[in-house]
Amino acid sequence: MKCKSCGFNNDDSNRFCSNCGRKLPSVKDLPSKAKSISIFNKGNVKRKNHSLKANSPNLKPLWITVGVVIVSIFIAISFDLVFHKYPDTEKSSGEIKSSNPVVEAQVTAIASKFVCSCGTNECNSTSLETCTCDIAGRERQFIRNKLEKNEKPDDIVVDVANKYGNLKSGFAAKYKVSPDKVWEQN
């Protein structure tokens, strides 16, 4: 499109003259004869290549970052599944045995002083160290957690008696717990 001020041949897509900077009329504002001349002159003007790709942002770094994040998450989950020891899924009591055999021996020793506190006919007077119900598992886990915090076994016996009760009567005198926390065989 020819500039009316300086006569420079501009590209039809230009809104301003590339030579003098004046505003050019749009193609739709020109009479039909001028449109055809403008199209004819189009070949004489060097055009700048304005492709969509040149104006769009480079997304390659974004895709690389997303890929790295996804792969990192996958590796972290895989590592956790391979190296983390989860409790047996068969146990619903939430009991997680310690890898330390000394702790497990102390759990058994303390649990042997109690009767399962669930009160069902199923566990009727079953010793806590051998009972398989969920409540017994929770009681043993309570003992295990305290042992892993290095609490004294005698203090743990008193804590279990106060929380769950059912201390076997033969141990009541040694640990001096309330009589309502002692299990008496009927």
Describe it:
By secondary structure, this protein is mainly α. The chain has 2 domains: 1-48, Roll (SH3 type barrels), CATH 2.30.30; 101-183, Helicase, Ruva Protein, domain 3, CATH 1.10.8. The chain is 43% helix and 2% strand. The protein has helices at 32-41, 52-55, 60-83, 101-111, 134-148, 153-164, 172-175, and strands at 167-168, 182-183. A two-stranded parallel sheet has the order 1-2. Helix 7 (172-175) links the parallel strand 1 (167-168) and strand 2 (182-183). Helix 4 (101-111) crosses helix 5 (134-148) and helix 5 packs antiparallel against helix 6. The termini are far apart. Residues 35-41 and 87-92 have low confidence and may be disordered.
What is this structure, in a nutshell?
The protein is 43% helix and 2% strand. By secondary structure, it is an all-alpha fold. The model is unreliable at 35-41 and 87-92 (pLDDT under 50).
Name some characteristics of this structure:
two-stranded parallel ribbon; SH3 type barrels; 186 residues; 2 domains; Helicase, Ruva Protein, domain 3; mainly alpha; rod-shaped
